[in-house]
């Protein structure tokens, strides 16, 4: 039987592609030294479906040390397939490039935006494979969990995107990585997507598909996902496979976050279509089943390993409104820089996903961070609407992020967080009141006597009212002037200076940090605190009021980092009243103790 010429050519083309892709499973390397202007080759990527397509490649030149010492870039012109319509596409990062059937590298860079010519930068394959030398198991120590503030550890602190000037104001930059959201509200996307843009990611709506038996059967040119959140919300990044060496998968040709040794779930990704745009063409993707673990995130590539995926952190968000109750479950990756922000994102998305949620309501939080071998961290608070130009639910999400970051990035030990549960109740109206004045029913009192403190509160768009707080003068109160602080929770917490990282560094371990967090006052209570002008000693997480002068002198001569702190007032009594609304402000008054 004879094949028609057209069928014979098609068969040969399929055989050529199959042979090239098969060879890349254990790739033969095309030396960078043999690359020169004018040499031609092919590259493979997906524009739609799971169909790998061939692009033609012409070398324009080699840029020596373009991305750093000994980090050369091959500058190429792409043509054929859909490239004339789309140009260089977000998600094309990692597309393998071959010369003479040998693997030369991965498409990884492009020339800025609004560029009509499909000119790309190729990361040489040898610099990608060299990452294997750094694939020793990561070492977890206290040094990995520095005591830096959550803001310093968050996504906002991303390093600038690497770029190479080509003159005339044009730069060679890493191709954007699609960051795909599914089950996300527009509000969440608007608030959080900008935080990922610092890493060269472009956000878009995508989806998920059911796992398939052949998900792990990868070929160069296929797409894989890097899962950050899964469940009722999914968030993942996508790159193209450059090479498979044994059970190791080399993708991207540039860093994802640049975190070095990491542990993220690796999934199969499927391209739905490619959106052509003069600004930025992008692959629209779905993510499939888990196929392994992303283990390295380095300058020249991201490397995964086929097999089991790492454990993730379960996060449950339960939202209650007067109309309904809704439950959301998420699984979040465990990474000291990513997890706090991702937990906040999941919490916020759960709140605003409730159809009954609207701005102008007050949110009440009651939750826990459960840690193996330690007490749970209690998350409590009330969040009234503010005049800030952010949605009201964002305050709650940031509070959760801050508390979680203090635990997850603590300088004492690597915590084994088992789960996070957030119970959020939406209360009608803006429940907020300011302290407008305070006075006592008497100017003098004796120890043991009850004094009534009256506080004038001015609620949001409501009539002012007076709240009475009875206090008992302690038996140990000294004769003379007694200062009384009428305040909200935040003012009282700041005054006590019981925060990790305060001068002196008084906390010693994670248990003490948890006790400090759990002891913070609640912002829906009105506090009346009795203060004497005598020193208080702060030792680790304990308060020792009325310290004798002899002990003060000894401590003053033996101060050391991590030792005690001295405050110049002592709390001899604290009273509070639940107000069912957020309290703001403070007032001082004094009475004379006889």
Structure commentary:
This protein has 594 residues and is an alpha+beta fold. The chain folds into 4 domains: 22-132, Beta Barrel (Thrombin, subunit H), CATH 2.40.10; 175-306, no CATH class; 313-427, Ubiquitin-like (UB roll), CATH 3.10.20; 433-593, no CATH class. It is 17% helix and 42% strand. A 6-stranded antiparallel barrel has the order 1-2-3-6-5-4. A hairpin with a 5-residue loop joins strand 25 (450-459) and strand 26 (465-472). Helix 6 (339-352) packs antiparallel against helix 7. The longest helix is centred in the first third of the chain and has 19 residues, at 5-23. The protein is elongated.
Keywords:
594 residues; alpha+beta; Thrombin, subunit H; Ubiquitin-like (UB roll); 4 domains; six-stranded antiparallel beta barrel; six-stranded antiparallel β-barrel; 10 helices; elongated; disordered N terminus
Mean pLDDT: 82
Structural class: alpha+beta
Tell how many strands the DSSP assignment holds: 34
Low-confidence stretches: 1-24, 138-161, 163-169, 498-505, 556-563
The dominant shape is elongated
Entry summary:
17% of the residues lie in helices and 42% in strands.
